[in-house]
Amino acid sequence: MAVQDISTYTYRDIFSLSIIQFEKACTFHKPEQVDAYSIYWIKDGKGTYNIDFESYSFDGNVLFFLSPGQVFTVDSEKVKEAYKLTFVRDFYCIQIHDAEVACNGVLFNNVYETPFVKPCAEDTKKLSFILDSLMDEFKRNETAQYDMLQSYLKQFIIHSVRVKKEHHVIKNNEETKLFKDFSLLVNQNFKTLHSVTDYAGRLGISPKSLTKHFQKIGSQTPSDFIKNRIVLEAKRQLIYTDNSVKQIAYDIGFNDSAYFTRFFKKATQKSPLQFKKDHKN
Predict the structure, then answer these.
(1) Pick the residue with more confidence: 265 or 36?
(2) Does CATH number 2.60.120.280 belong to domain 3-167?
(3) Would you give the distance in Å from CA 240 to the centre of its chain?
(4) How does pLDDT run across 107-149, given as a tens digit for each residue?
(5) How far is 223 from 83, CA to CA, in rounded Å?
(6) Does the pTM exceed 0.90?
(7) What DSSP line would sit under the chain, residue for residue?
(8) C-alpha angle 216-67-88 in degrees, rounded to nearest 5
(9) What are the angstrom distances between the C-alpha of 199 and each of 53, 184, 222?
(10) Helix (H, G, I), strand (E, B) or coil at 23
């Protein structure tokens, strides 16, 4: 997206709304690491994005959601109308509102599922009304502006959850709940806990039972899930930081950098340094 074609409203550097209304093709090869919660609404456009080293193509009207730490690259895009909402944890904490709007594992913090949500015509009207209200509020300087902006953001998120629930299959059975609980624990602890036994114990079940639950929903094994989350973090740091392989290995819980290198190469068929070289070029 060309910066000169974007209009942005900002509130205290903790919440912003960017508006893009143009038609231009562009390509970004350099990965960007997301540093805040971000909601992209491509109201009219098409393209291909890479999110955490996976490629996703879209054509038409789509929403997608990124969490802090994810790596985002534009392969190609041609956008006529789009919006971007960005906010930090201090403005609207996803974790606090999980139970109320079912964000965790539905919109945000969902690194292994297709990130796109496709609103229908009626959904588009409702979301457009919320954004129009947001823009109007940004232009004002009145009492309780913080609360009003937060309220509109919450409405946008709640409606997005409803859109996904209506148009996408979201299971709520015991196995799926266990998977979400497990994935949340892994995201919080993968740098220090690497074994299935560690997580099974915290969930109050045996490693064997945990594996059987995963088999029922057709998911990867718990062991592979942990491994893939560790590899994903290693990829992020290799691309987006100047940390040495030894520093990265230590940060994600490996005392032996040589062992980490073997672990990474087995998972990706490339050494850490080769992976970094390939993605820097």
Answers:
(1) 265
(2) yes
(3) 16
(4) 776 655 667 888 999 999 999 999 999 999 999 878 889 999 9
(5) 38
(6) no
(7) --GGGEEEEEETTTEEEEEEEEEEEE---S-EE--SEEEEEEEEEEEEEEETTEEEEEEEEEEEEE-TT-EEEEEEEEEEEEEEEEE-TTTS-TTTTHHHH--BTTTBS-TTS--EE---HHHHHHHHHHHHHHHHHHH---TTHHHHHHHHHHHHHHHHHHHHHHHS----SHHHHHHHHHHHHHHHHTTT--SHHHHHHHHTS-HHHHHHHHHHTTPPPHHHHHHHHHHHHHHHHHHH----HHHHHHHTT-S-HHHHHHHHHHHHSS-HHHHHHHHH-
(8) 140
(9) 26, 10, 9
(10) strand
Which has more confidence, 85 or 67?
85
Q: pLDDT exceeding 90 applies to what percent of the chain? A: 40
**DSSP, res 104:** B
Per-domain boundaries in the chain = 3-167, 174-280
Matching residue, tokens 């093709």: 25
Strand partners, 46: 59, 78
Q: Confirm or reject CATH 1.10.3720.10 for domain 174-280, answering yes or no.
A: no
Q: What is the pLDDT of residue 27?
A: 43
Q: What is the four-CA torsion angle of 280, 183, 246, 237, rounded to 10 degrees?
A: 20
The alpha carbons of the chain give a radius of gyration, in whole angstroms, of: 20
Can you read off the two tokens belonging to residue 50?
A: 């890479």
Residue 81 amino acid letter: E
Residue type (1 letter), 84? K
Give the three-class secondary structure for 103.
coil
Tokens of 186: 């892994």
pLDDT at 135: 92
